[in-house]
Design goal:
The chain is α/β, with parallel strands linked by helices and 739 residues long. The chain has 26 helices and 23 strands. The chain is 44% helix and 16% strand. In the N-terminal section; belongs to the AccD/PCCB family. In the C-terminal section; belongs to the AccA family.
Length: 739
């Protein structure tokens, strides 16, 4: 009896301490209560059982009241504190209490490929009446641990995310569902192979078309680190979890422009509220599908009722995803939506046939395509909307007829004719020649490959002088001490030399208009979707004014320009992220414009080019609405590439964070101009996260090439020529000019 009281008292002390940690020392009289509990706990055996029983009862009642009061006044930043607390449940607790059995893969504890990522084959048992059914699943998630420093707080290193991808593919091979568990403040920002950004991009690219159901559960979802294992058919989120583009502290530091030290507590709390990072916010915005209820002030390691609830929700979510692929589903789908207990009223076979897998992948694309649609703002008239719709329909119809009927028929007949000619060269030549003559008369004889008609002409380039070249002065090359570069006369540097030091090859930054006027054929650029504008969907204080200033400065509605153009006569679709508009950061508008552009490239079978003048990552002022552009855009990339498209990315200046870790980093062909800086996080973030200083050339294009992150380094003076050669030599037979 007394031992049970001792255990109960210990639990009460933990609860009281937990309340103080979340709500603060000034929350009612929590500090005084902790002192009382500690005194009784420390001198436990000096008290009579009757006194202890009475004390425990009264203390429980007090704590219940405090929990209720704490829940009523819970703030977004306090929710962040809940997810970070050492008493919070972890993936290991879920494996022990939700799954009926499991075996960890890729190492255990500290002896591990990356202890921050845990992968396990697990079993879930479903009871339907008197029958018991077993479901195999692959569990992949972040493990924060309980005070285990080697876990890095759940921040996965690049090889940890590679480990996750490896077991995703294993689950795909075995045809079993995947359950993701997200407990991370963000990815560990290092560029060592395979690279933080590049591996996240690779994970997203493969998750887009994994042939098994995917369920994700978010407790702590920090930006790109969460997306590395976050793309799913059904996204669940803990009621006291958070999902955000950046931590409140990080946002506060940026808003206050603090490079060293901690931002003020008041500003941190203000940013936590402004980021709209709670489960309720994310459900409202459509970033998640369902909230898993938690006890007052959040679930902890010993909240076994929560684990029962989570098990039900995981089975239910997997059922719902699978039933979406089935024709006979209505009663079970309704039953799944009402399921509240461990005793299920129905059974769903989790095996999928080929047709169901295709539906699963199609549903996944549609799900993400619809995300953030409500936040898109187009300054478009009704007439323009109808005109664009009609134009899109006509393009689809034209290409269906052109490629799938006419040209496909020509290719099939020509292949047959060539085979017939080859087989009958000796015996049937008199028969095949007349047929070939008739075919050439109808279709038109081609004397060589169609690409021969394309060539670069200097006359195709308009004369453009950079405004930077108008100053009559000299400038010193940043590498002059190392390479003994002479001072450069500005009109020559930004004119004839294209912003490149002729001695060492250092690339000075140039305005985005230089690229538009010097890379593409004269008068070939036609922009589209200019009406899609960046807005302030979270109503983030001060952000509307910043957007207004960016629009006035550039005359643009967003940081991404989408356009049709030609290089050497080859027609292509291109997008460009520009530095002048909010440092090329990506939000809802930019994501939507990117997707529409690459979908047009897919429809018209044209190459797709992404020029990255600069990108500073995902725009923090749009919160998770910006973050979900990472999976949305990457899924569009995967769809385009799978259809035989040619996707080329060219980086210039500074290219960091979310875009590089998703739709840019997933390109099959990536190149950088010589002085580009490329990576997942800048030196300051790396210092704050890892405590390590990085060398000045850590993010250089040369090091990116050595790590295998890009396929080559180009000189700006040869960019047009390089792109033309790439269009000629890269890409498959599905491109329009290869038919």
């Amino acid at each position: 009896m007394k031992i049970e009281l001792y255990k109960t008292l210990k639990n009460l002390l933990e609860t009281a301490t937990y309340i103080r940690d979340i709500k603060g020392e000034d929350f009612f009289e929590i500090t005084s209560l902790i002192n009382k509990i500690s005194e009784v706990y420390d001198n436990f055996y000096q008290y009579e059982p009757s006194y202890l029983e009475d004390f425990v009862k009264k203390t429980k009642e007090q704590l219940d009241i405090l929990l209720e009061q704490g829940e009523k006044t819970l703030t977004p930043y306090e929710i962040v504190k809940i997810t970070r607390h050492h008493q919070r449940f972890t993936l290991q607790d879920i494996l022990e209490n939700v799954y009926d059995s499991y075996m960890e893969l890729g190492g255990e504890g500290e002896i591990n490929i990356d202890p921050a990522i845990v992968c396990a084959k697990a079993m879930l048992v479903r009871k339907v009446g008197d029958e018991i059914f077993f479901h195999q699943v692959m569990v992949i998630g972040h493990e924060k641990g309980h005070g285990e420093e080697f876990r890095e707080g759940g921040s996965a290193k690049p090889w940890g995310n590679e480990k996750a991808l490896r077991y995703m593919k294993m689950a795909e091979t075995e045809g079993i569902p995947i359950h993701f568990f997200i407990f991370t403040p963000g990815a560990y920002p290092i560029e060592d192979y395979p690279g933080a950004a590049q591996q996240i991009a690779k994970n997203l690219y493969h998750m887009a078309k994994l042939r098994v159901p995917i369920i994700s559960f978010i407790s702590e979802g920090g930006s790109g680190g969460a997306e590395a294992i976050g793309l799913a058919d059904m996204r669940l989120m803990a009621e006291k979890g958070y999902y955000s583009v950046i931590s409140p502290e990080g946002a506060a530091a940026i808003e206050a422009k603090i490079s060293d030290g901690r931002p003020p507590r008041e500003l941190v709390e203000k940013c936590a509220k402004a980021l709209k990072l709670t489960a309720k916010d994310n459900l409202k915005f459509g970033n998640i599908d369902r909230i898993v209820p938690e006890p007052l002030l959040g679930a902890r390691r010993k909240d076994y009722e929560f684990f029962k609830r989570l098990k039900i929700e995981l089975i239910r979510a997997t059922d719902e995803v699978i039933l979406q692929t089935r024709s006979i589903k209505f009663l079970r789908k309704y039953a799944a939506s009402k399921q509240e207990t461990e005793n299920f009223k129905y059974y769903v076979n989790w095996d999928l046939d080929e047709d169901e897998i295709e539906i699963l992948i199609e549903n996944r694309y549609k799900k993400y395509r619809k995300m953030t649609q409500w936040a898109i703002h187009e300054n478009k008239t009704l007439f323009k909307s109808f005109f664009d719709l009609g134009h899109t329909i006509s393009i689809k119809l034209k290409n269906e007829i052109n490629y799938k009927i006419l040209k496909q028929g020509q290719k099939t007949f020509k292949k047959f004719l060539n085979e017939l000619t080859s087989e009958s060269t000796l015996l049937l030549k008199p028969v095949s020649d007349p047929i070939k003559t008739v075919y050439n008369l109808i279709v038109g004889k081609k004397t060589g490959a169609k690409l021969v008609t394309h060539s670069l002409q200097d006359d195709d380039i308009p004369t453009y002088i950079s405004p930077l070249a108008l100053e009559d002065k000299t400038i010193t090359c940043p590498q002059s001490e190392k390479y003994s570069c002479p001072d450069l006369w500005v009109p020559d540097l930004y004119g004839e030399f294209c912003g490149v030091c002729p001695n060492c090859g250092y690339h000075f930054p140039l305005e985005y208009k230089w690229y538009l006027n010097n890379i593409f054929d004269k008068n070939s650029i036609r922009t589209f979707n200019d009406e899609i504008a960046s807005t302030n969907p979270l109503e983030f204080e001060g952000y509307a004014e910043k957007l207004k200033a960016a629009r006035e400065k550039t005359g643009l509605n967003s940081s991404l320009i989408s356009f049709e153009a030609k290089i050497g006569g080859i027609s292509l679709i291109a997008v460009m992220l520009i530095a002048e508009f909010r440092q090329g950061t990506v939000g809802v508008a930019e994501g939507e414009k990117f997707i529409r552009a690459i979908e047009l490239a897919k429809l018209t079978r044209r190459p797709f080019l992404a020029l990255v003048h600069t990108t500073g990552g995902i725009r923090i002022h749009e919160g998770t609405l910006g973050v979900v552009q990472m999976p949305r855009c990457t899924m569009a990339v995967r769809d385009y590439v799978d259809e035989g498209g040619l996707y080329i990315v060219v980086y210039d200046n500074n290219s960091y964070a979310g875009p590089v870790a998703s739709f840019l980093g997933s390109a099959p062909y990536q190149f950088a101009l010589k002085s580009t800086r490329l990576g997942f996080a800048g030196p300051r973030v790396i210092k704050e996260t890892t405590g390590q200083d990085v060398p000045p050339d850590y993010h250089s294009a040369e090091n990116a090439l050595k790590r295998g992150h890009i396929q080559g380094i180009w000189d700006r003076r040869e960019l047009r020529k390089k792109l033309f050669t790439a269009l000629l030599t890269m890409g498959g037979k599905n491109l329009y000019y290869r038919w």
